Write a sequence for this structure.
């Protein structure tokens, strides 16, 4: 992984250091270990699987551009309920233009939003949200897939004003992809976003993005998604 210096001022850099030192309520050592485990998982080749892993269920499909196996218990969020789910994970106060960078295409036709309701149930108790989307024409013209994805990621970091931003090369479904990791402050919430940005056929870019305030338990969940992500459709 390479760390991207976010274009922020001294107070925001100080916040980034605080986040790195304190982590979340589960402790900084666990946060650091979770990050290292996630980076290690996505840096290794992943054997693609077409079978449904135990304890998971399929989400998405050809009409959405992506098919993915997610843990049992995750639910599909209807368009009418998406705002509540985003609010539950700390993203409710983001400006729409910034939210589009955090969860690219989250409200576009064909996108899918999923949520882990945890033990509380309902959108008010959602522990994490995941957005699946694909869009044409986003990769900068005249660039390789990797260069284009890195450019988009760095534009994302700038737009969000991330306090801690990192990206690294990987593959998803045998295609060039990058893992994008960043943290941001939204009011009193400290939100972590984890994302696979994938170069798909026809110069499409597909995104699998998870956002949560509880980064430690969800980093291993996110890293385990990769073998069963499929780029499908036109």
């Amino acid at each position: 992984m390479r760390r991207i210096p976010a274009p922020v001022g001294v107070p925001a850099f100080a916040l980034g250091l605080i986040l790195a030192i304190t982590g979340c309520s589960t402790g900084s050592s666990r946060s650091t270990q979770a990050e290292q485990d996630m980076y290690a998982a996505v840096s290794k080749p992943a054997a693609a699987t077409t079978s449904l892993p135990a304890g998971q269920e399929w989400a998405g499909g050809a009409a959405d551009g992506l098919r993915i196996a997610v843990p049992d218990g995750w639910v599909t969020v209807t368009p009418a309920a998406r705002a509540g789910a985003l609010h539950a994970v700390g993203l409710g106060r983001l400006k729409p233009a910034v939210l589009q960078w955090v969860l690219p295409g989250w409200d576009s036709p064909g996108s899918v939003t999923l949520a882990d309701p945890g033990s509380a149930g309902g959108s008010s108790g959602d522990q994490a949200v995941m957005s699946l989307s694909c869009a044409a024409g986003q990769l900068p013209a005249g660039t390789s897939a990797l260069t284009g994805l890195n450019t988009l990621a760095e534009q994302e970091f700038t737009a969000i004003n991330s306090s801690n931003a990192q990206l690294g090369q990987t593959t998803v479904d045998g295609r060039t992809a990058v893992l994008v990791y960043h943290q941001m402050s939204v009011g009193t919430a400290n939100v972590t976003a984890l994302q696979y940005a994938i170069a798909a056929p026809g110069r499409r870019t597909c995104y699998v993005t998870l956002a949560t305030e509880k980064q430690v338990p969800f980093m291993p969940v996110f890293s385990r998604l990769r073998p069963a992500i499929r780029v499908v459709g036109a």
